[in-house]
Structures are given as structure tokens and as C-alpha cells.
Amino acid sequence: MERFRFNPKTLSYQRIELSQRQKLVRFLAFLGMTLLISTGFLLLRDRHLPSVRTQNLEASQQKITFELKLMNQDLTRYDNRLNQVAYNDDNIYRVYFGVAPWSIRSVGVGGSRRYDWLKQFKYEELLKQTYSNIDQIERKLVMQSTSFDEVIDLAWTKEEWMAARPAIQPIGMKDLVRFGSSFGVRMHPILKVVRPHEGIDLTAARGTSIYATADGKVIQAGYRAGGFGKKVLIDHGHGYRTLYGHCDEVLVEVGDQVKRGEVIARVGSTGLSKSPHLHYEVHVNGRPVDPINYYATDLSAKEYENMIDMLSNADPSFDIN
Does residue 101 sit within a domain? Predict the structure, then answer.
């Protein structure tokens, strides 16, 4: 826009001409004012009017937070499911195969500073919880997989394992007269002190057949010191061993392979014994267990009931061993 100035001498208007310096000063002043106003507007907008980008970022953070919470809920359900699988593994599958529960399920996942690197993030605690849940499930999956590998191996060798598990009576039910001492703690009939009785005593006539209760290899046969007199010890594999004591006659030798139901000896009263009977023990992984739980499978319901009645009337002072 042009500007004019009145000249009283010439009584006329003359155009005002600006110097280059004046033009530059005016331009810079205009530019500075423009920048100042623009900056003020932007600051005002950012403070009171969130940008679309900011809104999008906040919406994304809220969505991610929501998804992480849902993920943790799913991880909790998966963890509970894994706990149920582990319970079934220890209390059903492993019990079926006669092995101990898996003992290394409680292994930790790392030190207390494992998640320190998450401190740089806004939702530190939520992220820690998520990573912790993932690590815990990963550990349980590895442990459970290892346990199932062992159970699968047991399943493949089930036939061999079943043959090795003591599962019949060492004396036929028709030949059994009564029970002497049962399994457990009892008063020693001579020493008059409480001592464990690691087997059961089965009374039968001298010469009654004694049967191997599972397939295995004879590792002891004949007279042995220790009170059992003539005895047979069979290693069945898979952690099972059975002992047959006070025999009158031993019909097998060390190294013989025997089958379940094979006659291995005759009932007698050798060693520290008051009258003819069989002292029978079952050991699992080196630990004596109650044989009553390992030979009821060949009995009818009536025979099993009779056996329980006989066991309830057992004489705890019948035998020394």
C-alpha cells in the first residue's frame, strides 16, 4: 500500500519513498510479530487443545493396557489349568505306574532383579506381572513336558512293568491257614521292645508251595544269616523286590529267571520261627511297603473279604522276624 505526504511548499501530495534499511526493519518487525503470535497460538493449543497425534497415542496406550490386562487373565487361567494337569500327573498317572510324584515343579525362574529393565516404561508393574506370568507358565510347561516324557516311557514299557509288579499271593488262598504278624510296628515277642515288621506272616502247612509274585531274577537263594533261615530274594526290576523267608526247601538258584506263579520254595520254619509259615516282604525302590496292597488282584471279592478278616485277627507276637 502506497503512502503520501503533503508538501506545503508545492501545495501537493508526494509519495513517501522508504529506504532499503527501513524496508528491512519493517519486514523483520512483521516477521517477528508473526512468529510470536504463531508460537503463542501453538502453545495455547498444545496446553488446552490436545493434538490428534497425542489423542491417538493416548488411545493406543489405553488399548495396550487393556490388552495386557486381558492377557494376564488368560495367563492366570492357563496357570490354573497347568496346576490341574500337574495334579492329575502326580496323583493319577504316576500312581498308576507306581512312581513318585514329579519332585522339581517348584524350580524358580530367576533373581529378584530379573525385571529391573522394565523400570524405564510407564506401566512398569503391569509389564512385570505379564512377564512374570509368562515365565512361570513357560517353566511349568517345560517341567510338565519332562514329566510326561517319563510317563510316556513308562507307558511304552507297561507290559514289562506289569510283569515286574508283585500282583498275586505267594501262598494259595486254599492253603492259607491264618495271618501271623501284619505289616507295621509291633512289640517284639522276645525283646519286648517296639520294632518295625517289614512284611507279613502267612501261616500254612510245612511243604506248602510258595509262588513268585512277579517275573524277576533270583539274587539270593538258600540259608542266610539274619533270622529268616532259608530265604529267596527276587529282583523284579522297576524298583521292585520281594523276599520269602523261613522256607523249608528252596527250589531256585541265584541267577535263575522266574515267572509270576512259578513255585520257588516250600513253606517251613527255618531261622527264628515258632512254627511253619512264610514271611513275605515287598520293597519298592529300597523301601518296604505293605504287601497286602500288592497281591489282592488275584482274589475274588469273597476271598479278599476273608483275607481281610484273617488279617484283622492276626497274631502280632506270632513270629520273631
Answer: yes
**Alpha-carbon distance 73 to 95, whole Å?**
32
Number of domains, the chain: 3
E-strand stretches of the chain: 4-7, 12-15, 178-179, 184-187, 194-197, 200-203, 209-211, 216-224, 229-237, 240-250, 257-258, 263-267, 277-284, 287-289
Q: What is the DSSP string of 127-138?
A: HHHHHHHHHHHH
CATH number at residue 253: 2.70.70.10
Provide the whole-model pTM: 0.51
pLDDT above 60 (res 314): no
- Our measurement of the distance from residue 252's CA atom to the centroid of its chain's CA atoms, rounded to an integer in Å, reads 42
Q: List the domain range (segments joined by +) for residue 252.
A: 173-312
Domain-located, residue 267: yes
Looking at per-residue confidence, does 311 or 252 come out higher? 252
Which residues touch 255 (CB under 8 Å, ≥6 apart)? 217, 218
Could you read off the pLDDT of 154-201 as tens digits, one per residue? 777 777 888 888 988 898 888 877 766 665 665 555 456 666 767 888
